[in-house]
Write a structure and sequence with these properties.
Layout (H helix, E strand, L loop, with lengths): L1 H19 L1 H20 L1 H20 L6 H19 L5 H24 L1 H44 L9 H39 L1 H9 L3
Length: 222
């Protein structure tokens, strides 16, 4: 019963955090889609620009796992997510950068592989990306939105406190009032970040232990 109660509370908090910030989440998702589509269309030109860096990227992607694949994938993705989250205290810039860069990356890869054999590689791309992507992409969007909310909390909290005022006697009261007015941003920021963590766990399990088998199965038809 206790587990059900906690699950119900968690579900309610996640739902309210998503609904209350649906415009921000939609903005992040739109930036991701637009970046991916543009990168897909102009993948050849982008590959020429990125050519000096491709060697390092390929080496990183082809290296062997040193631990359980799912665990290593989760650690890598969560480390990147936490870096984006805490770096977003600087005007939320890193959240937007993360969404755009990841969109460009998936667009370039998709455009490149599909151009080699539109039918076969389209199916392979779907098989290798969609199963874990349906969890990983929302996780990226939610953690980026969480980073923006973290910035908004800090900015609005300090703005209401107004540290330039010298009347120390009312400082505690200003802090208390500012906390009451803005704590919702911090709470929802943490909720979205934790939720994205759970999504990344699922995505890592699928990518680490299922995706390869799906790819082999799809490839067996050709």
């Amino acid at each position: 019963m206790e587990i059900n109660r906690y699950f119900s509370i968690a579900k309610r908090e996640v739902k309210s955090s998503i609904v209350d910030n649906k415009r921000l989440i939609c903005l992040m998702f739109s930036l991701y889609v637009i970046s991916a589509v543009l990168a897909w269309i102009f993948h050849a030109q982008l590959l020429e620009i990125l050519n000096p860096f491709l060697g390092e990227i390929k080496a990183e992607m082809s290296r062997e796992f040193t631990m359980d694949p799912a665990l290593e994938l989760f650690i890598n993705n969560e480390t990147a997510g936490l870096t984006t989250y805490f770096s977003s205290v600087f005007f939320g810039i890193m959240s937007f950068v993360s969404v755009i860069v990841n969109g460009i990356a998936i667009g370039i890869v998709g455009g490149k592989v599909v151009s080699m054999d539109p039918f076969r590689m389209s199916l392979m791309f779907i098989a290798l990306i969609v199963p874990h992507g349906i969890f990983e992409i929302p996780a990226l969007i939610f953690e980026s939105a969480a980073g923006v909310l973290l910035f908004l909390f800090i900015w609005r909290f300090l703005k209401i406190i107004d540290t330039t005022r010298n009347d120390v006697s009312s400082f505690k009261l200003r802090v208390k009032n500012s906390w009451k007015l803005n704590r919702i941003y911090l709470k929802q920021s943490v909720v979205l970040m934790v939720f994205s963590c759970f999504l990344l766990i699922i995505a890592a399990l699928i990518e680490g232990h299922v995706t390869e088998h799906i790819g082999i199965w799809v490839d067996s038809f050709f």
